[in-house]
Amino acid sequence: MSLEIKVPTVGESITEVTLAQWLKQDGDYVEMDENIAELESDKATFELPAEKAGILRIIAQEGDTLEIGAVVCTIEDGDAPAAGNTADAPAATKEAAPAAAADAPSENPDSYAAGTASPAAAKILREKGIDPAQIKGTGKDGRITKEDAEKAQAPVAAATPKAAAKPAATAAPAAVAGARNERREKLSSLRKTIAKRLVAVKNETAMLTTFNEVNMQPIMDLRAKYKDVFKEKHGVGLGFMSFFTKAVTTALKEWPAVNARIEENEIVYSDFADVSIAVSAPKGLVVPVIRNADTLSLQNIEKEIINLATKARDGKLTIEEMTGGTFTITNGGVFGSMMSTPIINAPQSAILGMHNIIQRPIAENGQVVIRPMMYIALSYDHRIIDGRESVSFLVRVKQLLEDPARLLLEV
Fold it and tell me: Of 28, 171, 223, 342, which sits with the fewest C-beta atoms within 10 Å of its C-beta?
């Protein structure tokens, strides 16, 4: 008796996943609860465990997009292979096995899989206008794989007398010297969701951006003075992000509309600050959340940032760790950005953008001096946040950063 393994429900807002890779091969014996595949949603990557012990029969192929509840594979009853069976098998049997496997599709023409395209292959064939019946599958039992579909060529229609009478087509343009290669990659679930959300934010919010600049000299002096003691005592470095997070959470208490969101016909105000931190991960930008950031010390903020950034790089972030933020901070300065307009992370109403630090001349006490300056940008939803609130919030953040003692004294 075989058991169907289906795509599990992984979150309320997730309707489909992508089969990233198989961890086991077709025909392998798997133990119960052993991970057999990796599935990728628009928010996280998670592993698919076997729900019983037995022989794995693969149905979905790597790269397939599967809806929640779709069958990924089946597990048939079977015993684990005894140790030494492979070594004791006759040599002739070993040599014949590859040939038998290669001829399997033709020897089993009545298999349900013969001539059937995988979801990814079917989509490619539809785009090319090719009937699957014209393709000979090389997959299990004659199944048409994604590779078969990519290699398939659309049939060339026979020319009619009328078509033959037409004048010759315009000559092709002369070849351009140098390589002109192109390659196509399927949009990942994460990239599709990012694109959809960004377009929705632009279309559904009244987004504006206000700018200011911060003299980073006081924070840089403070870090230089205490960074060694701080790291020795707390085990983490003292970075800029903890100062910005602390400044933001202090300003949010004074200007609660910046920490609010719109739900239907209501404004929801939060008396806590769950700060989302934009992190660049191998598969794209992710935004894990520092919970109750307003109650954390500088060292605890630094520890949480390191923890979340490490998980992001390793692809180990959970959906819960990336949802529910009330305000976002993004740092384009690490990539060299001087100034930009960050896009709101819906359903939040505001996002703070940090940029690179540049030595610039400024006027200070009637004198021109060189200081390490950073532009900061606050993008906000004008439907809920007025200009007075947005500008005042950003000025307060600037004030706290330029006098970091205020962060500790809360004044």
Answer: 171
* Tokens linked to 140: 């299990």
Counting Cα atoms < 13 Å in the Cβ hemisphere of 286 gives: 29
Q: How confident is the model at residue 156 (pLDDT cuts 50, 70, 90)?
A: low
Lowest-confidence range among 57-66, 267-276, 387-396? Answer: 57-66
Strand pairing report for 45-49 and 289-290 = unpaired
CA distances from 173 to 169, 178, 183, 205, 289 (A): 12, 15, 21, 46, 54
Chain Cα centroid distance, residue 199: 16
Residue positions annotated with a catalytic role: 382, 386
- All domains in the chain, ordered by first residue: 3-80 (2.40.50.100), 102-155 (4.10.320.10), 189-409 (3.30.559.10)
Does residue 402 carry a pLDDT above 70? yes
Closest CA to 263 of 379, 196, 347, 345: 347
Question: In the structure encoding, which two tokens stand for residue 48, read together?
Answer: 């698919």
Q: What is d(CA 382, CA 285) in angstroms, rounded to the nearest whole number? A: 25
User: For the chain, how far is it from start to end, CA to CA, in angstroms?
Assistant: 70
